[in-house]
């Protein structure tokens, strides 16, 4: 009797393992979101005709004595560099191709301000930007309180803006 009981329990456990092990688990919420997002016809994050970030590097200003320029990011449609003096991050210098985000260019349309002959805007208290050739946003962001709006505008003017305007 005891032996028969053990065999029955063993058969039941094996059957239970087979039944629960072979059933498919429902997709997790993350898997479901991935499925839904890939099935949509979403607009790509970067426009297909955006300029390669490596093309922008030659338009960044050369570092002056006492300053260092360190490239930090380069991808399609964007390039960025740090401006460093005495080991201190003073500013971020960036060029962005607005074909990927046309609303980024729209903010320049009614701007009465100009830097180096291009429409300019101040974004908050730490960012200055211009729009070159109705396409390329050149931006300088203060990373140190001593780096003022006048400093940002002066560094924007040091970019090779004429060369940038000639990009196809």
Assign an overall shape.
Answer: elongated
Termini separation: 89 Å
SSE pattern, N- to C-terminal? HHHEEEHEEEEHH
Could you name the CATH topology of the largest domain?
Answer: Protein Transport Mog1p, Chain A
Low-confidence stretches: none
Q: What is the domain total for the residues? A: 2
DSSP summary: helix tally = 6
- Which CATH C-level class of the largest domain is it? Alpha Beta
Strand count, sense and barrel status of the largest sheet are:
7 strands, antiparallel
**Spatial order of the strands forming the largest sheet:** 1-2-3-7-6-5-4
Helical residue percent band = 25-40%
CATH architecture of the largest domain: 3-Layer(aba) Sandwich
Structural class assignment:
alpha+beta
Mean pLDDT: 87
In percent, how much strand structure appears in the residues? Answer: 25-35%
C-alpha Rg (nearest Å):
28 Å
State the total count of DSSP E strands: 7
Describe the model:
A hairpin with a 3-residue loop joins strand 5 and strand 6. This protein has 6 helices and 7 strands, in the order αααβββαββββαα. The protein has 2 domains: 2-39; 53-165, Protein Transport Mog1p, Chain A (3-Layer(aba) Sandwich). It is an alpha+beta fold and 168 residues long. The protein has a 7-stranded antiparallel β-sheet with strand order 1-2-3-7-6-5-4. The radius of gyration is 28 Å and the shape is elongated. This is Lipoprotein. It comes from Pseudocalidococcus azoricus BACA0444. Keywords: Signal. Residues 1-25 form the signal peptide.
Q: What's the gist of this structure?
A:
The protein folds into two domains: 2-39; 53-165, Protein Transport Mog1p, Chain A, CATH 3.40.1000.
